[in-house]
Design a protein that fits this description.
The protein is about 75% helix and about 0% strand. The chain is mainly α. The chain is globular, with a radius of gyration of 21 Å. One of its GO terms (biological process) is transmembrane transport.
Length: about 230
């Protein structure tokens, strides 16, 4: 009965747009979308560069980026914490336990993921465009621009995958953000806190929002990547 009461209250919080729930959700979206824009600006051109240019450390770079996809987020949080702490090299900036620190951690986490997905997609596109672009005597910058434009659908899918990874992150965010009420509390850290306190209604409400975001992102990926054809997934 307690579980059902919590679920009922959670839906009521969603319907009435509870102030705490809305505030936490908007902060989560701000942090994650900002991190996604920065990460995409770094990762997408890098993925195109790895597809177009051949250099000595290219294979090593790709291998390292693929390995970083599996880097534990809490380790990223620890590294960012050390760098931004008072005794760290960037401690003077006072960024620790702020949304900016959370954004930095999320950028580090999702850049390797976006680069890897973008590189895989653009590598296939480059094999189709290689002869044409070279015969036109295009510069490396022009080749990268052409790949980014023609591969925009696949690149948007890569960015959405990064969003899905970032919005569900808790370990690194907890370490560098501190889960401070009305300041750095986001969906995942709030769910962990409210569950620990036994406040299942707000935790479930936040959980429903997080699930809805995850479903929306996955549906967007399916639609954009055109995996739904002929009525089949």
């Amino acid at each position: 009965m307690e579980i059902w009461a919590g679920i009922t209250e959670a839906f009521w919080l969603l319907i009435t747009l509870d102030a705490d729930l809305v505030e936490i959700t908007l902060r989560s979206l701000y942090v994650t979308l900002t991190a996604l824009l920065i990460a995409s600006a770094i990762a997408l051109p890098l993925g195109a560069l790895l597809a177009v240019r051949r250099f000595r450390a290219r294979r090593l770079t790709i291998a390292v980026l693929n390995a970083l996809m599996g880097l534990p987020p809490v380790v990223v949080g620890l590294i960012v914490y050390v760098m931004l702490s008072r005794s760290g090299p960037f401690g003077v900036l006072g960024l620790l336990f702020t949304p900016t620190a959370m954004i930095i951690a999320q950028v580090i986490i999702i850049v390797p993921l976006i680069v890897s997905i973008a590189h895989q997609a653009l590598r296939e596109l480059w094999s189709d465009y290689h002869d044409l672009l070279i015969s036109m005597n295009t510069t490396q910058t022009q080749r990268i621009q052409a790949l980014l434009w023609d591969g925009r659908r696949a690149l948007l899918t890569a960015s959405l995958a990064g969003f899905g990874r970032a919005i569900g992150e808790v370990g690194a965010i907890m370490v560098v953000g501190g889960n401070i009420d009305h300041h750095t509390r986001v969906l995942t850290t709030a769910i962990a806190l409210e569950t620990g306190k036994g406040e299942f209604a707000l935790a479930l409400g936040l959980g429903f929002v997080l699930i809805a975001m995850a479903i929306a992102v996955n549906l967007a990926i399916h639609v954009i990547s055109r995996t739904e054809r002929g009525g089949r997934w």
